Automatic annotation (TrEMBL), chains A, B:
It comes from Raphanus sativus. This is Glutathione S-transferase. InterPro entries: Glutathione-S-Trfase_C-like, Glutathione-S-Trfase_C_sf, Glutathione_S-Trfase, Glutathione_S-Trfase_N, GST_C_Tau, Omega/Tau-like, Thioredoxin-like_sf. Keywords: Cytoplasm, Detoxification, Transferase. Transmembrane segments: none annotated. Residues 3-82 form the GST N-terminal domain. GO terms for cellular component: cytosol. Pfam families: GST_C_2 (PF13410), GST_N (PF02798). The lineage of its organism: Eukaryota, Viridiplantae, Streptophyta, Embryophyta, Tracheophyta. PANTHER family: GLUTATHIONE S-TRANSFERASE (PTHR11260:SF687), GLUTATHIONE S-TRANSFERASE, GST, SUPERFAMILY, GST DOMAIN CONTAINING (PTHR11260). Residues 88-212 form the GST C-terminal domain. It catalyses: RX + glutathione = an S-substituted glutathione + a halide anion + H(+).
Length: 219, 219
């Protein structure tokens, strides 16, 4: 049976990037379908009726939702190509812990980017920097989070990298000044084809922010 | 090598319950160590330096944090005893999706239980009921979330059951009136030794709430 893989996604999504990278690492051809989030398609609503959000991975007609769950699904479905999670249960749990921790940075980032008041934005920025420093400490002097090979935790974090310039511009700070090791790591990651192909253009993300801010306010 | 398994936990924890049940289902003997969360032990701080929270599962000296990650770790480490997650990658992704969804009920429950204003409590209650109805729809007429066998999603949700009476009392509503199928499912789960042994006493949880409210306010 030939696999039919469809990805419902939206180009700036830091979550969609994770799934795109995982598919690229596994050399899986997929049909990328850009979604209009202001006018959600019948397919998106049918495939993710609970959250109605992208990314949705559709494999042979069946949907998988939530980006980190998609990355694990991709790893388990195509186990022979480039493993994304370690095989040892303890190391797997460790990777999942850091994937989960990275997702816990979102409330801070939400306040930083969409906060209505500057005091809220400042507190979001502080939360984000503190958490990114914790992630940086975990990386330490390793090449990638899992050691010498690019994998699950790298995929979880690099999704945010296309937004770093936007965070810096709207938060008025330098991530490199705060977390130089993270920036060096991100530059290594971007050398991989899977990442370079999947990340959104930082400039375009910055251009999009005013529009997104307007939409957030309407919501 | 004999496995040494320690669980740092706090008796009313809906998260700790998950890990206790998973260990019981696998027939793993463990050393339960009750933690004083107002005066955190050196062991807790050493084993979970990032979040400093219970439950922490310590297996042969190495910590695993976050309850659903612990459940997966337990399943992967002792795969021969009673499987908790399905073996099929698609069904595993489906179970993980619902585990994640159940954790997304927490902000609503937080507002319901610890909200400073009644408008906040009401909105938390509504969020919780809406989400629990979605979970109930997923359960449908199945015996357990995975079908005929008790597993990962059941463990994720039943952790909350010891708190249901407290939610009802403080939210002034009946979960059974809103979600009768969930209550019938919970009563089935409680017949399992692993669950009966692990759930906190509802009466004691209710008695504890004023003290917890006071602490939340101080924080």
């Amino acid at each position: 049976m030939v696999d039919v893989v469809i990805l419902l996604d939206y180009w700036p999504s830091m979550f969609g990037v994770r799934t795109r990278i995982a598919l690229e690492e596994k050399n899986i051809k997929f049909d990328y379908r850009e979604q209009d989030l202001c006018n959600k398609s019948a397919l998106l609503l049918e495939m993710n009726p609970v959250h109605k959000k992208i990314p949705v991975l559709i494999h042979n007609g069946k949907p998988v939702c939530e980006s980190l769950i998609q990355v694990e699904y991709i790893d388990e479905t195509w186990p022979m190509e480039y493993p994304l999670l370690p095989s040892d249960p303890y190391q797997r749990a460790h990777a999942r812990f850091w994937g989960d921790f990275i997702d816990k940075m979102l409330p801070g980032l939400g306040k930083l980017m969409w906060g209505a008041k500057s005091v809220e934005q400042e507190s979001g920025k502080k939360e984000f920097i503190d958490m990114l420093k914790t992630v940086e400490f975990e990386l330490g002097d390793k090449t990638y989070f899992g050691g010498e090979t690019f994998g699950y935790v790298d995929i979880a974090l690099i999704g945010f990298y296309g937004w770093f310039d936007a965070f810096e511009k709207y938060g008025n700070f330098s991530i490199e000044a705060e977390c130089p090791t993270i920036i060096a790591w991100a530059k290594r990651c971007v050398k991989r084809d899977s990442v370079a192909k999947s990340l959104p253009d930082s400039e375009k993300v910055i251009e999009l922010i005013p529009e997104l801010k307007k939409k957030k306010r309407v919501e």
